[in-house]
Amino acid sequence: MPLLIPESLLQKEKDHVAGFAPEVAWVTMGGGEQLEEKMCIRPTSETLFCDHFAHVLHSYRDLPMLYNQWCSVVRWEKTTRPFLRSREFWWQEGHTIHETAEEAIAETEQQLNTYADFCEKYLRMPVIKGRKTDKEKFAGAEATYTIEAMMHDGKALQSGTSHYFGDGFSRSFGVTFAGRDNTLQYPHQTSWGVSTRLVGAIIMTHGDDEGLILPPAIAPIEVVIVPIASHKEGVLEKARELALRLKGKVRVKLDDSDNSPGWKFSQWEMKGVPLRLEIGPKDIAQDQCVIVRRDTREKTFVPLAELESKIGELLEALAENIYNKALDNREARTVTCNTMDEIMQKANEANGFIKSMWCGSEECETAMKDKAGLSSRCMPFTQEHISDICPICGKAASKMVIWGKAY
RNA sequence: CGGGGUAUAGCGCAGAUGGUAGCGCGCUUGGUUCGGGACCAAGAGGCCGGGCGUUCAAAUCGCCCUACUCCGACCA
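^ inputs. structure came back:
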């Protein structure tokens, strides 16, 4: 889809334009000439896809239409933050239309689950699945679902979203198809995305003072081999032999540069390589090597005969450990509150998640922001019954919300 | 948008009361080292963000720009 969106196209869905207009960048000139109609640089591509759908959709037989594109988008943020909030960011955006609401809702859920699984199983980052409040939902959506992660400083990071649009956009853009009963119908739509924000999430979930800690599944190098006293007879040869032996089984790199071993240790730790394999004269004499975990720095002497299996075990142990550490941090920084006083006190003490009931009114949500500096992160799918009243207004409440400070 | 801060070597910084610049890291060369960022020696590297002013003399004082940055409000 194109990079530029004509203003008229952006205007077609009123909630959407109201939500995005304040943060779009506009192109007003072309080759020194003022443009007849200004164009915005896409902040998201729903309008472009809708325009496209209107042209290509004719029959229920064309449905579902499932699109995905990787591109960068621009949102004119007032405050930027490397990886987490940049004015231009690279993302993946999926856009689908379906014959029925049920199908579209299923798609929305499926994608949210895909993101959650990816974060938890591959990035080893625990997330909370839930629904956004109306105040926080995507402009123009009927429902927005989110996965919320907690960074190690206790701040929340929305790590992926999936939206259900109903047929609102379809109606605004005149997207129609001939249905099974030969009547003209509007398809039900979804969109969903994750961005390079996840890179920031990895850094801020797993990293420590020595640098990155990469989850093994996405580490470009899983094992780095550092020869010790590599000038001595046979060391480099042995290191090369091990690298060759591991190649194809695990992503391995031999650092045979002439930097000192200590320098290499620090360097590869900073880059987040999960395992370091040391091989030196003493090891060679005993037919073993030393493997050091990035997360705990724990050293293990490994007989060369058991090399492959031990590497597998250690990678898995590391992956599990970094997930558990992140989860422990989240649990330790999550509190349940019943009164506004309690909430304000906790919010003041430390960053973290605060669970409380909520009556559902936007006034109370705004009050939470004003009084405690907290925004609603989501209404988790897994609800807990804390009480029956909203701590903000005292009226009846049936929804539990997670509040927090967000990046 | 509101309120702070910073700008001096590739990077990080120091340069009170004005006298044309220094430290650490990095880089180059030689030697010794090599199981946690090695050591010694010799080097290279600077329009002190930009402009105007004050002064015999400005990195230093004054005014005006520009860029970056932090904290708020706004947002994936």
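Chain A has a mean pLDDT of 94. Chain A has twelve helices and 20 strands.
thumbs up if we can close this ticket
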